[in-house]
TrEMBL record:
This is Clp protease ClpS. InterPro entries: ClpS_core, Ribosomal_bL12_C/ClpS-like. GO terms for molecular function: peptidase activity. Pfam families: ClpS. GO terms for biological process: protein catabolic process; proteolysis.
Length: 91
């Protein structure tokens, strides 16, 4: 009988751990599509297409994640959305 030696190779993987938060934009009956789109392009640096898609998702679904990232980066953006009269929060 031959002896088979099993070699176990331990692979260490480093997981990238980051606490990603989201800015969620909520639907309201006050703001126009144009205002929402313009604000998303200015504050979140969305392309016109991204901003339009988010505004439609918010309109039909009631909410949409418009930005993800670290809290410290999202906080001033969320504040700007609120100052523009939009309904948003960081979750």
């Amino acid at each position: 009988m031959s002896t088979k030696e099993k070699v176990l190779e331990e692979v260490l993987t480093e997981e990238q751990v980051s606490n990603n938060n989201e800015i969620v934009l909520y639907n309201d009956e006050v703001n126009t599509f144009d205002h929402v789109i313009d604000t998303l392009m200015k504050v979140c640096r969305h392309t016109p297409e991204q901003a339009e898609q988010c505004s439609l998702i918010v309109h039909y679904n009631g909410k949409c994640t418009v930005k993800t990232g670290e809290y410290k980066d999202l906080e001033p953006q969320c504040s700007s959305l609120l100052e523009a009269g939009l309904s948003a929060e960081i979750i």
